[in-house]
Amino acid sequence: MVLGTFFLLLGLVGVVVPLLPSTPLLLLAAACYARGSRRFYSWLVESPLLGRYIRDYREQRAMTRRAKATVLTLLWLVIGYSALATVPAWWAQALLLLVAVAVTVHVVLLRRPRR
What are residue 113's phi and psi, to 5 degrees? Predict the structure, then answer.
């Protein structure tokens, strides 16, 4: 239960922090809850906010087009702002933008859309 809650909290942070992967953390939380408490597992998987992502990934290993658009929009907003407004070194800006490009390629090309 403690690990499930820890992974759930990290997954929630990962929803808004682009480099922290939310889906694997939510899947870990679901696995921990499945072993620790059927009630918490059901709550998480049936959650209107997070349950769909867990079910989509678990059942089809896929993301909806809307989820992809949301992820990529947040990714570019946060990394773009960080790279251009808060990081003074050009090489660090380039590294952040390279990470954003890599994540974009992964999301667009390697994660097949569900709908």
Answer: -75, 145
Provide the residue-wise pLDDT of the chain in tens; the chain has 115 residues: 889 899 999 888 887 776 677 777 888 899 999 998 899 999 998 988 888 777 777 777 667 777 788 878 888 988 899 888 998 999 999 999 998 898 888 788 766 655 5
How is residue 63 annotated by DSSP? B
Cα–Cα distances in angstroms (integers) from residue 37 to residues 52, 58, 67, 69, 89, in the given order: 20, 19, 28, 33, 48
Question: Does the residue 115 lie in any domain?
Answer: no
Assess if residue 79 is contained within a domain.
yes
Helix (H) or strand (E) holding 57: helix 51-60
The domain of 101 spans 65-110
- Give pTM, 2 decimals: 0.60
CB 11 within 8 A of CB 38: no
Counting the structural domains of the chain, the total is 2
